[in-house]
Amino acid sequence: MQGFTAWPQQPMLSGGGLTGRYMLQQFHFHWDQSRDLGSEHTIDKLHYALEAHFVHALENLTIEQAARIPYGIAILAVFFAISDTPSQLRQLENLFDMTTAFGSYNSVTYRANDLLPEDREVWFLYSGSLTTPPCSENVIWTLLAEPIYVEESQLEELRHRVSNTGALLVRNRREVQPLNNRVIYMRARKGNGAAHSTTYTYSKETTSLKEDILICYSTVVPEGRVRCKVHLN
């Protein structure tokens, strides 16, 4: 989904090891025909059913300009686990229903913030690449460790979308890639994390990251104010 550059207050990402302010350009999802393999990243070798990528460009640059410079793009990744709990994706279900082909335009009312987990205290950061061609090596990745939820029926809806080639999108994820000696930075939980249900143990050594991350996604856009372009590919 695109259209954020026209929002009155464009969603923004900064801090957490990033080198500047990054403005949200679009977000998209990756999934698989198997509920056990949908994500493009793993934590402790664990895949999630769905992964969302919030793609940002360095402030005052277009996404095309940002793609040509080191660390010009910052992507925030969010994992989705299967659950019967009502999902944050419900606010986008009408949009999914209306969208059947590449390049469809629809209006939608939502906050990007509602597609993020409430618990954002633990995350990982590394320097990597886009997961789609041309797979440029100029991306700063931030992975929120705590997942949110997706219902099985919503995954099925995504798998039955039609791509610009006319084929069903039962799978659109890239296989997990080797680290190739990349340094992985981890922002650990502060103080006593006993109030949280998830305990994290990580099989890869990480470098500690102290700086907080700032995710400014709270702007609500009224229906019809912005027309968002939906890419299904």
TrEMBL record:
Pfam families: Carb_anhydrase. SMART domains: Carb_anhydrase. Gene3D superfamilies: Alpha carbonic anhydrase. The keyword Protein transport does not apply. It comes from the Eukaryota. It catalyses: hydrogencarbonate + H(+) = CO2 + H2O. This is Carbonic anhydrase. Its cofactor is Zn(2+). InterPro entries: CA_dom, CA_dom_sf, Carbonic_anhydrase_a-class, Carbonic_anhydrase_a-class_CS. It is an enzyme of class 4 (lyase). Its EC number is 4.2.1.1. Keywords: Lyase, Metal-binding, Zinc. GO terms for molecular function: carbonate dehydratase activity; zinc ion binding. It comes from Toxocara canis. Reversible hydration of carbon dioxide. Belongs to the alpha-carbonic anhydrase family. Residues 1-188 form the Alpha-carbonic anhydrase domain. One of its GO terms (cellular component) is cytoplasm.
